[in-house]
Every structure is written in structure tokens, then in C-alpha cells.
Backbone:
């Protein structure tokens, strides 16, 4: 969790905090995408435990810039959560597009 000075407690504080965390998570995602050992199944590095561990350590150090108490287990949970959200949003978008096509046909 990001800690702010006590003088920053305005009505917009939640929005500011959310914006900062959102931008940071976009940076983490970009770092994650630059490390194919963590996600590219067809990569030789994906099956190499040492390279995968090194990649997780790089990502964890980046993550700890804003969340100093972060652990590897917590980071993995966060990544899984982000992947699930992305997949769910994609499925919802596809369903909406199918519904639009059905309406046009009728």
C-alpha cells in the first residue's frame, strides 16, 4: 500500500491514489510483457526454472518500488488476478459483440 503525507487528505485523494497505482500497474505489466520467460509458453526460457526465477526477481524488484512489503507469492497472486480480469473483460466484450450481431440479424 502506498502511504501519503497527512496533508494530502482531500476529496480527490482517492482518485489521485488510484491514478498513481493504475500507472504503476501499467509499468509492472509492461515489465511482465518484456519477460517472456513468465508468459510465452513456446519460449525455451519458459521451461527453464532458473531463467523464470530470475525474471520473477526482476519483476518483484520493480513491484517493490511501490509496495516494499511485497512477496513473490503476493506478486504471483496479483498477476493471476490481472490475467483473470483481462480474460473476463475480453469474454464480456465478445458476448456483447455477439448480442449486437444477433440484434442486427433480427
Residues:
Amino acid at each position: 500500500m502506498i502511504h501519503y503525507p497527512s496533508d494530502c487528505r482531500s476529496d480527490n485523494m482517492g482518485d489521485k491514489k488510484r491514478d498513481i497505482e493504475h500507472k504503476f500497474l501499467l509499468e509492472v505489466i509492461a515489465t511482465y510483457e518484456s519477460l517472456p520467460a513468465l508468459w510465452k509458453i513456446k519460449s525455451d526460457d519458459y521451461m527453464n526454472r532458473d531463467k523464470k526465477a530470475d525474471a520473477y526477481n526482476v519483476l518483484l524488484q520493480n513491484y517493490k518500488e511501490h509496495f516494499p512489503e511485497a512477496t513473490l507469492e503476493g506478486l504471483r497472486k496479483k498477476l493471476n488476478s490481472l490475467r483473470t480480469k483481462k480474460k473476463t473483460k475480453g469474454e464480456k466484450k465478445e458476448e456483447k459483440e455477439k448480442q449486437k450481431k444477433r440484434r442486427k440479424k433480427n
User: Anything to note?
Assistant: The chain has four helices and no strands. The two ends are 50 Å apart (CA to CA). Residues 1-10 have pLDDT under 50 and may be disordered. The CA atoms of residues 4 and 13 lie 9 Å apart.
